[in-house]
Amino acid sequence: MEVSSAALAALSGLGFGLSLIVAIGAQNAFVLRQGVRGQHVFAVVAVCALSDIVLIGAGVGGFGVVVQSAPEVVTVVRYAGAAFLLGYAVLAARRAFAASALTTGSTGATVALGATIVTALALTWLNPHVYLDTVVLLGSFANTYTSPDRWFLGAGAMLGSVIWFTVLGYGARLLGPLFARPAAWRVLDSGIAVVMTLLALGLLLAGPSV
């Protein structure tokens, strides 16, 4: 059976998008933690997925050229993102060594919905690597296709983001029994603190543009 070019483009976009997003990073670590705690999971998944959809759409539409031609904007985002990641790393480290880190999601303090959404937005939009992956790399790949196939590729990548964040956010609940143990929370938050610190240092040591 012959597969249409649109279907092949969509499958390529799905695979390429997942290859970029399925990695240890600030955004994924945050989604995982919220999923394990069962707090504002839908809001976090929606913010991350919708942000990716917007960025992928911009990349497929050719906005990657604009990003590459504005290194000063990327530099500002890079330093702002590094500062935010370092701040979040400090908070995660404090949770790892404080009494509140030894509680499960059902008994721990709940962060307000607004603050959770702001954090999810910051971890997404203050990360220059997001623009490199979704706007520049995926956008460049999509633009090797002719229209309308490149938009089917973009749709496949968007679907990949929705699937990934949904699985990560809601699938994390399966880890509930593991995180009923205090030590598991300490390990998780310690790991998040390390990841955030390394990512922040990576941004600070990176070149002037994505």
Number of strands: 0
Mean residue pLDDT: 79
Query: How helical, in percent, are the residues?
Result: over 70%
Multimer state:
single chain
User: What is the first-to-last residue Cα distance?
Assistant: 42 Å
The Cα radius of gyration reads 18 Å
The major pleated sheet works out as: none
SS field, number of helical segments: 9
Helix and strand composition category: mainly alpha
Strand content: under 5%
Order of helices and strands: HHHHHHHHH
Low-confidence stretches: 99-107
Shape: globular
Describe how the helices and strands are arranged.
Blueprint: H1 5-21, H2 26-37, H3 41-60, H4 64-68, H5 71-97, H6 113-125, H7 128-142, H8 149-171, H9 182-205
Helix pairs in contact: 1-7, 1-8, 2-3, 2-8, 2-9, 3-6, 3-7, 3-8, 5-9
Summed up:
This protein is mainly α and 210 residues long. The chain contains nine helices and no strands.
Describe the structure.
The radius of gyration is 18 Å and the shape is globular. 40% of the residues are buried. It has 9 helices and no strands. The longest helix has 27 residues, at 71-97. Mean pLDDT is 79; it is low at 99-107. It has helices at 5-21, 26-37, 41-60, 64-68, 71-97, 113-125, 128-142, 149-171, 182-205. The protein is mainly alpha-helical and 210 residues long.
